[in-house]
Amino acid sequence: MAAARPPCLFVRMSMSDDPRAIKRGAFFGRRKGHRLRARQAALIETLLPRLALDLAAPAPRDLRTLFPQRVDDVRMEIGFGGGEHLVAEAQAHPQTGLIGIEPFVNGMAKALALINEHGVTNVRLHFGDATELLDWLPDAALARIDLLYPDPWPKRRHWKRRFVQDQSVRSLARILRNSGEFRFVSDIPDYVAWTLERLLRSPSFIWTAERADDWRLPWPGFTSTRYEAKAKREGRTGCYLIFRRTGL
Question: In the chain, what are the domains?
């Protein structure tokens, strides 16, 4: 039985997302921040093309063929920021293929530097909007999807810009295999409540928490990121949610 909903998450939310207010595939925010260093720019020009997925071609039915070495499973991280978690997961699980999505060039450049530094070969990348890749991926293709510290878009008029919407939850359900997991982390109670509401009302997912520590503490092996460090410095704590795909 799932744990009771965390007391801090009882936040009044709209009962449904208005699909007319959500522009499919839209990206909100700046794609570029500070100027890239010469080495970072070089990696964008040389390493990224070798690791980037070709969305102009049909997706393979078996995503494991995207990787040069044999992998047992394929996972995805949406919005990997500077790549700390993505690269750490790739190093810790060399038999797992990792697909990372990031629309910001500075984050992509930092991730490429880490990939190059550590010689990681079990990573593939998409430099662009997540919805483009979700549409491209085949059904039941992924073992796990991570969304860690996404932009909360705190103003009510911007809620439609949040990644987690009823439509995106349906997309996640389509590309996750049976018993696959969607893992979500945020330090913003409002966004945690928003995410819980949309996943709990989906017939395709169950929340796995059985006790308070299951959402209050990171799951085993979790790699903290600079976003989490910033939240802790500012007195906020993360909430760690795991949802399991069911009903296939």
Answer: 40-234 (3.40.50.150)
